[in-house]
Amino acid sequence: MGGHYNPAAEPKADQDLQKLKDAHIPVAFRDKCAHILVDLNKCRRRTFYNPNKCEHERHTYEECQYYSYLQRVEAKKQQDVIMKARKAEIEASQK
Q: What are the pLDDT digits (tens) for 37-93?
């Protein structure tokens, strides 16, 4: 996004569940970017949800969500290749 790479926006599969619980992050939001959401929500509460504040944290969270989406798309492409190869293998063995 924007031609740069932000290592802070890297999705993490291993989350500290106790930290998320202590920060009152709902289960629905405990994905690969929840570690960034903790800091974003702290900033939001501190600034009374002012939309002009916490822009950097929000951008980092949204960037993490985008990277997570790209990872899922790539995983789906790899899965499709594997399934196509298996299907071709089964069809070849049935002939």
A: 999 999 999 999 999 999 999 999 999 999 999 999 999 999 999 999 999 999 999
58, with CB counted inside 10 A (0-12, 13-18, 19+), is middle
Q: Write down the pTM of the prediction.
A: 0.86
Residue found by looking up tokens 């960037």 in the block: 63
Task: Name the maximum alpha-carbon separation found in the chain.
Answer: 68
Q: For 56-61, which contacts have Cβ atoms below 8 Å and span 24 or more sequence positions? A: 60/6, 60/8, 60/9, 60/36, 61/9, 61/33, 61/36, 61/37
Buried b (16+ CB within 10 A) or exposed e, 3-31: eeeeeebebeeebeeeebeeeebeeeeeb
